[in-house]
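Researcher: Here's the sequence for the chain we discussed earlier.
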Amino acid sequence: MSALLLLQGRGQMTGRELASKLEVSERTIHRDMEALSAAGVPVFAMRGARGGWQLDEDWRTQVPGLDEAELRALLMAQPRSLGDKRLAAAADRAIGKVMAALPEPLRERASSIRDRLYIDVTGWRGTTENLSMLAIVQDAVAQDRKLQFWYWRAGRERVERTVDPLGLIAKGSTWYLYAGTDRGNRTYRISRMEDAKLLDAPSVRPPNFNLEAAWKISAEEFRDEVNREMEAARRTYEARRDAERRAAQEMEIARQVQARLFPQRLPATQSLDYAGVCIQARQVGGDYYDFLDLGSERLGLVIGDIAGKGIAGALLMANLQANLRGQLATVVDQPQRLLHSVNQLFFENTAENAYATLIFAEYDDKAQMLRYANCGHLPALLLRHNGDMERLHSTCTVVGLFNDWKCEISETCLLPGDTLGFYTDGVTEAMNDNGEEFGEQRLAEVLDRRRHLCARELLKGVVDEVQSFSPQEQQDDITLIVARCRETDQQMLFDRPV
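Model: Thanks. This is the structure I predict for it:
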């Protein structure tokens, strides 16, 4: 029956061709053909150089020898899963013809099998391969004609290509064209083709070309390339992870270094209770506060805000602190000259757009006198013991922006029970979910409401209220200094509530 099916498909074959295909001798072929003829099958022997065996073209076999397992495999292997509507329609017609030739019991079984098979080629996201160019590509392959088309490369670059079609490959539900080009053989994904058209020129097909072998080589090369890309991606990822780890380690070192720049001890005073804090929005920042022992029972209180954040702000903050502390030894008794020197050094050693706002205050512990320079900073708040509030406004412009810089000094006396607050904009500009800022008024109210606390507890209370008001991620450094002029025992007794 195998010989009969071959003749039915090809019409005429030589005895040698049949023997080769069926892997038997020509004598066996001759004997089988004689047996078919004797059984009434219209098979004829053709004489001459191109002779052989021929089957009457009007005769069709009734699908001899097809069992249920073979029928099930045939029905399950239709090309509908490849998304090709034209091939699917042709396959349906062919299957219909096969079923029409089946014996009644087998035909019923085939109908039952078909009723139990449905293939949905649409992806879960509602998309599938665009196969609008597949029909013309199939024609180019079948007719051995050159094909011209526009192609979207993986990097979303549209290029024009003219190729010699060598074969079609269906991998899963994806169709590929394997074709020859002037740069060697290439594989093209059908769904990325546009405006394909057949050319009149015949395609060039290499002698002894084997599509399956060529595809396997191409697929192996593709897998190797993917593996190389995956390995390169892995190395890149590891390098990035290593760089991130190093950056995190370096940032932690920078944080520790900057933490040491803030005051590590508080110079002792008799009349002033004070404390400071800096809570950075990032691991390092540009806010600065300091407490300096100026000698002769004098305390320096400093708060500053660098124009910049992160590493850049931290470096400028360290520069400002170094300049300020470095100049103390030479002009410790002259705040104006001290700040002039600091401005000059900051101006000369930083970029032209670098600057800082700053308050430098000198507190005389014995006289309880405060001399200060506010260099473009937010006004400090001075809450008097009787409930009045004063603002220590700017006395000069910012530090480091101008070479020609003048500084004025103001002074005020602190009385027992007075509370002083220095702060940066990270306090007053902290924002709640409604877009409202914490503001100066709320800060003054908190300082006044908690003024009976010691400086450290007062400081903590202010920070708690700011963070409660603005619970989301902190956007700016929160830096604050509070100081309370200590009350005498007699005044504390007088002010104690009954």
